Amino acid sequence: MKKILILTLLILMSSVKPMIAQENNYIKEYLERLETSREYLILVAESMPEEKYNFKATEESMTFAENLMHISWAMDWHSQTLMGGREARDWNTDTELKVDQKSKKEMIATIDKTFDKTTEFISNFNIEKLGERLDYFGANRTKRQILMLLADHITHHRGQMLVYMRLNGIVPPRYVLFQ
Length: 179
Known about the structure:
Layout lengths: L1 H46 L16 H20 L20 H20 L9 E4 L2 E4 H25 L12
Antiparallel strand pairs: 1-2
Helix pairs in contact: 1-3, 1-4, 2-3, 2-4
C-alpha cells in the first residue's frame, strides 16, 4: 500500500511540472504577441496625421484618438484591475488614459507606457493563477481567457482605426503577422 501511495505521488508530482512549463510558454508567447501588437499599433497611430485624430466614421462612433486611448484604458483595466485586483480608475475624473487635451505625440507616449505596464504585469503574473475564474460582464472566464480577450480587444479597436485611415485616403501600414 505504501508503494502505491509513493508511486501515485510521484506520478502526480511529475505531471505538475509540465503544466507549469506549459503556462510559462503561454506567457512567453503571449508577451511576444503583445510586443508585436504594440509595434504595429504605434505604427498605425504614427501614420495617421494629427489633424485626422478627431475623425470618426459615424456620429455614435469613437474618434481615431478615442479608439487609441480606449485601447490604453482597456489594457490597464484588464491587467491592473480585473486580473491584478487594483481598484478601477474613475472614468469621470481620471484623464491619464483619456484623450483629454493630449497631442498625438502624448497619446502615442501614453499607449506605449501602458504597454510597458501591461507587459511588466503579465511578466510578473503568477502563472498558477491563470486558471482562476472571474466574472467578465456576466460570463465566467479564466484569467488565461481574460488575456485572450484583451488581445482581441486591442485588435478590434485597431481594426477600426485602420478603417478610419482608409476612409481618409490613407494607406495603413502593412499588416504584421503574429499579433
